Amino acid sequence: MKEEASNKSRRNFLKSFGVTVGAAGVVSSFSLLSAAKAAAKEPGETVNLLTADGQLVQVDKNQLRPTVNEPLDELQQRGREGIAGKSFVMVIDLSKCRNARKCMSACQNHHQLRADQHHINVLQMQDADHTAPYFMPKPCQHCDNPPCTKVCPVDATFKRQDGIVLIDNERCIGCRFCIAACPYSARIFQWTEPKDAEKYKDLTYNIEANVPQKKGTVSKCLFSADRLREDKLPSCVSACPNGVYYFGDRNEDAVTNGTSGETVRFSKLIEENAGYTLMEELGTKPRVYYLPPKNRAFEFNGDLLNEENLH
Ligand code: SF4
Ligand code: SF4
User: Fold this and answer.
1) What 8-state DSSP symbol labels residue 105?
2) What confidence category does residue 301 fall into, taking pLDDT thresholds of 50, 70 and 90?
3) Of all protein residues, whose CA lies closest to atom 5 belonging to ligand 2?
4) Is residue 211 a contact partner of residue 229, using CB atoms and an 8 Å limit?
5) What is the pTM of this model?
6) How far apart (Å, rounded) are the C-alpha atoms in residues 112 and 110?
7) How far, in Å, is the centroid of ligand 2 from the Cα of 219?
8) What is the 149 CA–ligand 2 centroid distance (Å)?
9) Which residues, other chains included, contact 306 with Cβ-Cβ below 8 Å and sequence gap of 6+?
10) 178 lines ligand 2 (CB under 6 A)
């Protein structure tokens, strides 16, 4: 009886910190950040927490402090508005991609996706019989003229002032019109209960991370909109070990490489390297730019899937 009471109060304690307990706790990136910033007093009991990017961490209870478990309507409103003054863009340097697929796993951890579900996928490409093959990461292109948003009958998917295209799964009715409308095959449908549904079930839905994921709705790349609020680069950009991704703000004409941390002029990078966007002829105006796979940054022996080329 005593033990049951103590378990109950432990659950209540963790809930007041915005933490849900399963095999391990689940903590949003917001609350972990708060935890990191909190000043440690005396060491005490530790708790296991699963961060939003899939890391299991042990945290001293004294380092936790209550996070504002923001009400759904505030998260929805903030998610719709986007970040004022920003115009986000991504640049993907195909000459550096060697199929490490760290971007894919970081994204899957961040957005509660199974290994067979992709917001970003690394494709093997070959443009003609006698040209060299290459790897091409493909996220949502966050089009400035997006066909996907125009067909949604319930205004569940929309474009924000900062250029990011999101989906509100509190509104999505799962009709899949947007999947048919997207020429880049960037959207996926949740046919089954999402991964770790039990662990995430008590978290308030965060439209900027699309977590918790919901069965019967649509999902896609969000440019890690929740991380951008914390001045962090998207998960995929930070996870790449090979310098493939640049991300930044077109208004400031600056993009930062996720591997080296180097910030460069966006316009110069595109101009000097013959940057392009996918299927420009469709008029979708993508915000993801590609640099051609010329002058590879690694030895290439002609066999794309040779073990030496993959890491
Ligand atoms: S890539 Fe597809 S899902 Fe993404 S904004 Fe463009 S049309 Fe919409
Ligand atoms: S599946 Fe959801 S987001 Fe897509 S068009 Fe239908 S309601 Fe809109």
Assistant:
1) H
2) low
3) 152
4) no
5) 0.79
6) 6
7) 10
8) 8
9) none
10) yes
